[in-house]
Amino acid sequence: MNVLLSVGFVVTWSSGFIGAKLGAGEASAVTTLMWRFLPLALVLVVVAGRTCLRTLSARDLGRQAVVGALSQSGYLLTVYCAIQLGVSSGTTALIDGTQPLVAGALAGPLLRQYVTARQWLGLCLGVAGVAVVTTADATAVTGVAWWAYAIPFLGMLSLVAATFVESRSPTRVEPLAALTVHCATSAVVFTGLAVLVGGVEPPAAPSFWLAIAWLVGLSTFGGYGLYWLVLRRRGLTQVNTLMFLMAPVTAVWGALMFGEPFGVRTALGLGLGLAAVVVVQRGGRGRRPGADARGPSSVDSVPTSGSRERSSPPSPCT
C-alpha cells in the first residue's frame, strides 16, 4: 500500500507540469491560472469558512497570504510562462526541484543554522544537474529565447522565499485553512492580472477545460491530498525524497506525451540531481531530534524556527 501511495503521489504531483503544458496550448498563462484557482478558491472558502478559517488571527491570515503569493502565485506564474515560452516541462521541473537544496544552503547565513559540507556538496551536484539539463534542452530546442530558461529560477527563488517566511511563523496553521488562503490569494492575483491584460474570457475549446480539470483534480487534490497521506504514513524525509523524483518522471512524461527532448545529457543531468538528493538526505541523518518536524516546502536541511513541531502545506502547485 505504501508503495502504491508513493507512486500515486509522484505521478499526480508531476502531472502539474504536464497540465501546464496542456493549458499553454489553449490560453495564456494568466488565463489558465485564473480559471484554475477562481472556482477552486470559491469552493474552499465555502468548505473552510465555517470551521478552520475562523481560527486564524489577522496576523496568521496575512502571513499565509504572503506565503500563498510566493509559493503559488509567483511560483506558478513562472512555471506556466516558461513552459509557454518553450522550455520543456522536465527542465522546468528540475530547476524548480532545486528549491529545497538552495533553501538548505541559505539556512546557514539567513537563519544561522548549521549546514554540513555534505549538504553543500549536494547543492553543487544539484546545480550541476540543472546546468547539464538546461544546456541540453537549449541545444535541442530551437526558437526558445535564452532568457526563458531564467524564468524557472525566479519561481524557485519565490518558493525559497515562501519557505523562509513560513519558517518564521510561531503558530501552526491547519492544512485546509492554509490551502484555502493560498488558493484565494492566487485567485485574486490571477484574476486581477487577467483583467489587466484582457485575459478573463476562457477559450471555448473543450481541451482548455480538460486542462483545468486535469490541474484541479490531479495536481491540486490528487497531489496535495496524497502528499498529506504519505506524510502521515511514512514521514517527511520520505516525502522530500519522493519530491526529487518529480523531475525525471516529468521529463519522461513530457518526452512521451509531447515529444520533448530526452537524450543522454538530459539523463546525465537528472542523474546528478538524484545523486544530490542522496547526498543531502544522508547528510541530514543523525541530526538533532525533531529534525523531521518541518514545513513540507523544505527538505531535512531546511530549519524551522520555534520549538513547536508543525507542518505547513506546500504549494499544491504542481
Tell me what you see in this structure.
The chain has 318 residues and is mainly α. It has twelve helices and no strands. The chain has helices at 2-24, 29-49, 58-84, 89-97, 99-111, 117-140, 151-167, 175-197, 206-234, 236-243, 246-258, 264-283. Helix 1 packs antiparallel against helix 9 (206-234) and helix 6 runs antiparallel to helix 12 (264-283). The protein is globular and about 50 Å long. Mean pLDDT is 78; it is low at 286-317.
The assigned structural class equals mainly alpha
Largest sheet: none
Chain-averaged pLDDT: 78
Helical fraction equals: over 70%
The proportion of residues in beta strands is under 5%
- Report the radius of gyration as a whole number of Å: 19 Å
Name the descriptors:
single chain, 318 residues, mainly alpha, globular, disordered C terminus
Write a short abstract of this structure.
With 318 residues, the chain is mostly helical.
Summarize the helices and strands and which ones pair or pack.
Elements: H1 2-24, H2 29-49, H3 58-84, H4 89-97, H5 99-111, H6 117-140, H7 151-167, H8 175-197, H9 206-234, H10 236-243, H11 246-258, H12 264-283
